[in-house]
UniProtKB/TrEMBL annotation:
Assigned protein family: Belongs to the hemerythrin family.
Domain Hemerythrin-like: 15-124
Alphabetized UniProt keyword annotations: Iron, Metal-binding
Pfam families reported in the protein's UniProt record: Hemerythrin
Molecular function in Gene Ontology: metal ion binding
Organism encoding this protein: Candidatus Thiodiazotropha endolucinida
Protein name, per record: Bacteriohemerythrin
Length: 128
């Protein structure tokens, strides 16, 4: 498993079309956020990017958890860890305690770990 997002990888695909499409968008959103945070010093704009990411993250998690509930997945997991981590990193960034790259690294590592490990378990349960 790679430890950085370099580009979309088949490794991130689960074989569940709805989730795969959402993960592809999530990947593009993280990539765009990384680019914009590195290239823009417009702080209000940077903050609005975090709002966009937070809203999409919430949508994706509700959607994913609904699929898990509908299928009777016994390992239904909460996504609070990412939400808490994202909020913490966002606040630290806004207060000037961490750099944008640290937020991006957190998001990249979370995406890889969650998609390749946690969501893979769900895909195996659904697909068999």
């Amino acid at each position: 498993m790679q430890n950085r997002l370099q580009g979309w990888s088949k490794e991130y695909e689960l074989g569940i079309k709805e989730i795969d499409l959402q993960h592809q968008y999530f990947f593009r959103l993280i990539t765009r956020l990384a680019d914009e945070l590195k290239n823009s010093s417009d702080f209000p704009y940077q903050k609005s990017l975090f709002v966009e990411l937070g809203l999409y993250t919430h949508f994706h998690f509700v959607s994913e958890e609904n699929l898990m509930q509908r299928s009777g997945y016994p390992g239904l997991h909460e996504h609070n860890k990412l939400i808490d981590g994202l909020n913490k990193n966002k606040l630290l960034f806004e207060e000037g305690h961490i750099e944008a790259i640290q937020v991006i690294d957190f998001l990249k590592m979370w995406f890889i770990s969650h998609t390749v490990k946690e969501d893979r378990k769900f895909a195996e349960y659904i697909i068999g």
